[in-house]
Amino acid sequence: MQTIAVLLTCAAIQNPAAPGAGAPAAATAVEPTSILIGNALASDRAYERLRYLSDRIGARLAGSPNLEAAVQWALAEIRRDGLERVRTDPVLVPHWVRGTESARLLNPLPQPLPVLGLGGTVATPAGGITAPVVGVRSMAELPALRERARGAIVLFNCAMPPAAPPFEAYDKVYDCRSDGASAAAKLGAVAVLVRSLTTRSLRTLHTGTLWYEDKVKKIPAASISVEDAELIQRALDRDEQVRVKLELGARQLPEARSANVIAEWRGRERPDEIVLIGAHLDSWDVSPGAQDNGAGVVVAMEVVSLLRQQALRPRRTVRLVLFTNEENGMRGAHDYFRRHGAEHHVAAIELDRGAGRPVGWSVDGSEATLDRARELAHPLRVLGAERVEPGFAGVDLIPLTRAGVAGLELEAEADHYFDIHHSAADTFEKVDRLDLALQAAAAAAMVWQLAEVVDPLPPGVRKKDDQD
Q1: In whole angstroms, what is the distance from residue 406 CA to residue 400 CA?
Q2: What pLDDT, in 10s, does the model give residues 255-299?
Q3: Among candidates 221, 194, 252, 213, which has minimal Cα distance to 121?
Q4: In terms of C-beta density within 10 A (0-12 exposed, 13-18 middle, 19 or more buried), how is residue 458 classed?
Q5: By C-alpha distance, which of 180, 60, 63 is closest to 118?
Q6: What is the pLDDT of residue 461?
Q7: Is 269 an annotated catalytic residue?
Q8: Which domains does the chain have, with CATH numbers?
Q9: What is the pTM of this model?
Q10: Which residues 6+ apart lie within 8 Å of 82 measured at CB?
Q11: What are the backbone dihedrals phi and psi of residue 275, each rounded to the nearest 5 degrees, phi first?
Q12: Which residue of the set 326, 350, 386, 452 is catalytic?
């Protein structure tokens, strides 16, 4: 690690970024950027924090004691790092628990059917639901079921396209999980089974949030493995009758208390101008969430800690926000905007793309935002993370980007991200120490640039017709 840090730091100093309009001189921009990169690569602090968060605190769904333990742990770590204005903003969050779950394939070949309730699902009636299964391969195919869906369990066998980039592939089938239950209920279905959203599987189960439509009957929903979805599909393709018994014991409890964790490194000249760097602290209940989103949490913490450690105080304030309840409600994001949306955010960064090697930035903003972001990302070429493309800036930044704040998300290699996404397999040992350090280096360099340049990043585009 030390050798890599020295080599990359030397490369950054020998090949300084072109200043560009409003960029600081090399003495104030290139040198601090190189220092931050070098120190990030030489440090194991983020990696060791992720080990503790994953192994000692574990799964952190909203409403759980583990999430509140994570809030207190983060507060203690941030205070130990000497950051400023360390505090929490209380947030009420949904409290859903899955309870006991089981299913059985009754025919054509009786056997157990492993299931994992989707986040927010309602329970089955006492004794479960036994019904025939009908299947579709996409939401677009659902209307063609017509009367066949009435009284049936609908299987959404929606396969992520293996040739598409991972997050594009996920987006193509996301609606099967998020909207499938309500869409099937409108046709009279009694439950849904959803193929786990993954491109590779060893009969693993992947959960995730579903959204029930208002005024539509809520029906139970669970994920099944890729292998079992294909087994059922083959039987349906042979016109064989398929029947399943499904039992889900989920409960929706009264809202629980949680909090966003906030800390700052105050700007030396323009403390009221804010560069936000954030990640979500919660995870699903079946997993310690090492990649989603423990990695983002510890990298965000590391960025602000590196500034404090090196006594690098930029012009603007850098604000760290660890959001609660991203996975099944976005309460943390909306509460942050309610409290702080009127403050002067000049840019916001989210870290929520797993722990892979950083490759660049997805930017939600105007063309001027993108052009300026490309200038500021230039020093990151030594890390291979200088690419800037238009795109989504992250779930927890939606309220800010809708209001016109320029949003950025650090993109990372994701070839294997969906192998473990929202599953019990999202564990610490799958995170590479160097990749995590490279993320911290890239994020720290970008945050410094955003907070230090004389001219701030141009604003994004306010989405007037898309406000909550």
Answers
A1: 8
A2: 999 999 999 999 999 999 999 999 999 999 999 999 999 999 999
A3: 221
A4: middle
A5: 180
A6: 87
A7: no
A8: 2-95+254-452 (3.40.630.10), 99-249 (3.50.30.30)
A9: 0.93
A10: 308
A11: -110, 115
A12: 326
